[in-house]
Amino acid sequence: MDGSSTRKPSDPGIDGVLRDHKGIVQCMNRSIPVGIKDSNEAEPIAVIKALELSSTREECIGKRIIIESDSSIVINRIIKEYNRPWKFHVLFILASRFSSGLRLVKYSHIYFKGG
Q1: Which domain covers residue 17, as residue numbers?
Q2: Distance between alpha carbon 2 and the CA centroid of its chain, in Å?
Q3: What is the band of 44 on the pLDDT scale with cuts at 50, 70, 90?
């Protein structure tokens, strides 16, 4: 999943692809609007949306899930609770709630391959 914003604050959207263990696309979301936010809030919302989609799809329940994001800040904040800004506290509670229905969630930082 990815959140994007061209300026702070703006009207960003989030995108994402859900793939199975073979890399086959199961679900694709393009430009889901998230309201007036900056990129620091759009990125965790994108991760939460990925967790929400995964936790509600029958084929994902009880499976290991890898959430990839090009935001090392978001991945770091999800993994290290002490590193979370208080203003995003509710977002991280949602992330925890959605991930609790999945067997194992691993978070991984990937480099953006823009073009």
Answers
A1: 2-109
A2: 7
A3: confident
